[in-house]
TrEMBL record:
<dbReference type="InterPro" id="IPR023213">
    <property type="entry name" value="CAT-like_dom_sf"/>
</dbReference>
<protein>
    <recommendedName>
        <fullName>Condensation domain-containing protein</fullName>
    </recommendedName>
</protein>
<dbReference type="InterPro" id="IPR052058">
    <property type="entry name" value="Alcohol_O-acetyltransferase"/>
</dbReference>
Length: 414
């Protein structure tokens, strides 16, 4: 698999993928250790991208054994550099790894396994250019985009006010793993579908409800606030369909600003339907792409009415990545939600000799700050949850409080 043997090097001011000088498999084997603690350690251990490879694996053995069928349980953790894969394609890689492992046990190893191809995102680039040209010729819409982004970026966040970071908090993320059982997952899917809303919209509406409850309980005087949240979006949905996994990092963020009042629980379905409507509109209107494309336009006149007031830059430099020692910029949303969807359609968890009991995934970006990141997916009829709390910005008890209240709220559908 080509992407498992590459590194990243800088040449003439640009970063390029290079084949490693010497191929190696970065595998460490541990015994009887907590998968959660190993997971957290991995997320705080950087990858040496200049040397490579851009991935590593940790195998955690266990003495646990089911005597009745001679079955052993163990854990394996994959760590990938975000340059070669994202959450959506990581599932594909896990599926292919499971196939390889099953074939090894079966002693039926193939000469070649195809994990997918690294895509440079040229289709996304074409979309950015198209949307930038559209914005240039539609100044009224361009102005609306700028206003929306400004309003979102200037919305007041109250979590750090009510849950300040402890003194001396380092740049670390606390992860809390969880799962909803099959009965609760089935009921959630059924009730959201009956109300005509997506699972993501319904679930995030519950998060917003919980956030509002927490703020109210901690003395929020306002009857209504505008609640900014961000949501991962798979750009491949805009591409032409391909039969193979398109590896690489091809994710953008959809930003939503929802008016949320203290009685959101009493009017929950109306709120959830409005959230769903705004999310779908953002996807259909390519909001995530437009918010990036508008940055490739620059004013050269104080008269925004004229077409000549905006020029399209041919080459837009990427913003520099701040060094790890610089202070974090304050977050602009209450949480970042990443929903992998129903991964059972991609990940075949039951094979002849191996099967998956539990799967969880997350991300760690040293240069990024966020109050909370929520990863969730539906696998084998159960919702797997991972809450990531950036402790430098919030008190550790917030994540525990969020988790307890979320589980409490969704039990109403049981």
């Amino acid at each position: 698999m080509e992407i498992l043997h590459i590194c990243i090097r800088k040449e003439n001011g640009h970063y390029w993928f290079y084949k490693m000088d010497e191929e190696k498999i970065p595998l460490q084997v541990l015994k009887n250790q907590s998968p959660e603690s190993v997971f957290e350690k991995e997320t705080h251990t950087c990858i040496d991208s200049a040397t490579g490879p851009l991935w590593r694996a940790t195998y955690i053995t266990s003495d646990e054994k089911q005597k009745e069928n001679n079955t052993f349980s163990s854990n394996i953790l994959f760590t990938f550099h975000h340059a070669i894969t994202d959450g959506y394609t990581s599932v594909n890689i896990c599926n292919n790894f499971l196939k390889v492992l099953n074939d090894v046990i079966e002693e039926n190893v193939q000469k070649l396994y195809y994990f997918g191809q690294l895509n440079d995102g040229h289709e996304s680039e074409e979309l950015f250019i198209q949307r930038a040209k559209y914005l240039k010729n539609n100044l009224e819409y361009c102005s609306e985009i700028r206003t929306m982004e400004s309003k979102f970026n200037n919305a007041k966040l109250l979590l750090t006010e009510y849950f300040p970071a402890p003194k001396g908090a380092g740049k670390r993320t606390k992860f809390i793993h969880g799962e909803l059982n099959k009965e609760m997952t089935t009921n959630l899917i059924k009730v959201f579908k009956s109300k005509g809303i997506s699972f993501h919209a319904g679930f995030c509406s519950v998060f917003n409800w919980v956030l509002m409850d927490i703020l109210t309980e901690n003395g929020l005087p306002d009857k209504e606030i505008e609640l900014p949240t961000t949501h991962a979006f798979n750009l491949r949905k805009y591409w032409k369909k391909s039969s193979s996994a398109q590896l690489g990092s091809h994710v953008l963020v959809i930003s939503l600003l929802n008016k949320t009042d203290k009685n959101v629980g009493e009017n929950f379905w109306e709120y959830a339907k409005e959230f769903d409507k705004e999310l779908k509109n953002a996807i259909e209107s390519m909001q995530a792409i437009d918010w990036i494309s508008v940055k490739s336009l620059r004013y050269i006149s104080s008269e925004p009415k004229c077409d000549e007031s905006l020029n399209l830059q041919e080459n837009v430099p990427l913003p520099p990545i701040p060094p790890s020692y610089l202070p974090f910029l304050p977050p602009k949303s209450y949480y970042y939600a990443s929903n992998m969807g129903v991964t059972s359609s991609i990940l075949k968890g039951e094979r002849d000799h191996v099967s998956i009991k539990f799967i969880s995934g997350g991300a760690s970006i040293p240069s990024m700050s966020s109050n909370m990141i929520i990863f969730f997916q539906t696998f084998q009829g159960k919702v797997n949850l991972l809450h990531g709390l950036f402790c430098i910005l919030s008190n550790g008890r917030l994540c525990q409080l969020m988790r307890r209240k979320i589980y409490s709220e969704i039990t109403i559908y049981k």
